[in-house]
Design a protein that fits this description.
Elements (H helix, E strand, L loop, with lengths): L10 E4 L10 H28 L6 H30 L3 E3 H34 L4 H4 L2 H14 L2 H10 L9 E2 L6 H5 L7 H34 L4 H34 L5 H26 L1 H26 L1
Parallel strand pairs: 1-3
Antiparallel strand pairs: 1-2
Subcellular location: Cell membrane
Keywords: Cell membrane, Disulfide bond, G-protein coupled receptor, Glycoprotein, Membrane, Olfaction, Receptor, Sensory transduction, Transducer, Transmembrane, Transmembrane helix
Membrane topology: Multi-pass membrane protein
Length: 324
C-alpha cells in the first residue's frame, strides 16, 4: 500500500454518538461500563460453573461455552475503547489499530453465527432423531464443529480488511460509530465504495443467512416433530428445551439482518438511531445470554443453585451457632 493512499489520515477518531452533548459523556461512559461489567461477570460465572461442574460437560453446554467465549472477546474488543472515549476523551485509534478492531468485530460476529448454527443442529438432532442423538452428537463432534467454526470464520473478515485497507483515506478521519466496522471505515474512503461494499455485503449475508437458513429449517422440523407428540405436556416440555436457544438466535439475527438489508437498499436512519440499534444488537445479547442460560437451561440453573446453596450454608450455620 502506498503512503499516498492515506497521507492525510494516520489515525482515526471514534466519535460514538455524534448527537450526544458533552454533559452526558459521563453518563454514557458509566452505562457502557456497567454493560461491560455485567457482560464480563455473567459470562465468567458461566465459565466457572462449566469448569467446576462435570455434569455440564455435555455437547449442548460445550456449544454454550464457545458462545460465552466469543461474547466475552467481542465485548472486550469493542467496549473499552468507546468507554475511554467518553470517560477520558481518548477516542483516537491508530490507522492499523482500527483495521485490527474491524477484523475482530466481524470475526467474532461470524463465529457467533456459526456457533448458533451448531446450537440449532444439536437441538434438531436431539428432538427429531432422539434415538440417534448419542451416536451423532458427542463431545468430540462438538469440539470438531466448533473448532472448524473458529477457523472458517477467519476468511470473510480477513477478505474485508484486505480490500478496505488499501483504499485512499484522505479526508475525514472521524468514525461515526462506537467501534471500527467495515461500513463506518469505508464510508470515509475518497473513492466510490460501491465496488467494495457490495462484496462485503455478500460476505456478510453468507455468514448470516447461510447458518440462518439451516436454523429456520431445523426449527420448522422441530415444530413438526413436536406436533406429533400426543400429550400437551410432552409438547411443552420438548419446546422448553429450545426456548432459550430461540431467544438467543432471535436477538442475534433479526436486528443484524435488518441493518444490513436497510443500509444496502436505501432505507435511511439518523446516524444516532442507527448507532443505537447497532449497539443494542451488538452488546445486549452478550449481557443477556448468561441470564438466558441460567433461567432457561435446566442443568446450568441446577449447577448455579447448588453452588449458591453451598455458599449460603456456612452463613446459616454461623447464625444458628450464634443464636445458641
Amino acid at each position: 500500500m502506498s503512503a499516498g493512499n492515506h497521507s492525510f489520515v494516520t489515525e482515526f477518531v471514534i466519535v460514538g454518538f455524534p448527537g450526544l452533548q458533552p454533559e452526558f459523556y459521563g453518563l454514557a461512559s458509566t452505562v457502557l461500563f456497567l454493560v461491560y461489567f455485567c457482560t464480563a461477570v455473567g459470562n465468567v460465572v458461566i465459565l466457572v460453573l462449566f469448569a467446576t461442574d462435570r455434569d455440564l460437560h455435555k455437547p449442548m453446554y460445550f456449544v454454550i461455552l464457545h458462545l460465552v467465549v466469543s461474547d466475552i472477546l467481542f465485548s472486550t474488543t469493542t467496549l473499552p475503547k468507546i468507554i475511554a472515549r467518553y470517560w477520558f476523551q481518548a477516542g483516537a485509534i491508530s490507522f492499523t489499530g482500527c483495521f485490527v478492531q474491524m477484523y475482530l468485530v466481524h470475526y467474532f460476529g461470524t463465529v457467533n453465527s456459526y456457533i448458533l448454527f451448531i446450537m440449532a443442529l444439536d437441538r434438531y438432532v436431539s428432538i427429531c432423531f432422539p434415538l440417534r442423538y448419542p451416536m451423532i452428537i458427542k463431545n468430540s463432534t462438538i469440539h470438531i464443529l466448533s473448532t472448524t467454526a473458529w477457523i472458517v470464520a477467519k476468511a470473510c473478515p480477513l477478505m474485508m480488511v484486505i480490500r478496505a485497507y488499501p483504499l485512499p483515506y484522505c479526508d475525514s478521519n472521524k468514525i461515526m460509530q462506537c467501534y471500527c466496522d467495515h461500513i463506518a471505515i469505508t464510508t470515509l474512503a475518497c473513492t466510490d465504495r460501491a465496488t467494495y461494499s457490495f462484496p462485503a455485503f455478500i460476505f456478510a449475508m453468507l455468514a448470516l443467512l447461510g447458518p440462518l437458513a439451516f436454523i429456520i429449517f431445523s426449527y420448522c422440523s422441530i415444530i413438526v416433530a413436536v406436533l406429533k407428540i400426543a400429550s400437551t405436556q410432552g409438547r411443552l416440555k420438548t419446546l422448553s428445551t429450545c426456548s432459550g436457544q430461540l431467544i438467543i438466535i432471535a436477538l442475534y439475527y433479526l436486528p443484524r439482518c435488518f441493518i444490513y438489508l436497510s443500509s444496502n437498499i436505501g432505507i435511511k436512519f439518523s446516524t444516532d438511531l442507527r448507532i443505537v440499534i447497532i449497539m443494542l444488537y451488538s452488546l445486549l445479547p452478550p449481557m443477556i445470554n448468561p441470564l438466558i442460560y441460567c433461567f432457561k437451561t435446566k442443568h446450568i440453573k441446577k449447577s448455579l443453585m447448588k453452588r449458591f446453596n453451598k455458599s449460603t450454608a456456612p452463613q446459616k450455620d454461623n447464625v444458628f451457632a450464634v443464636s445458641q
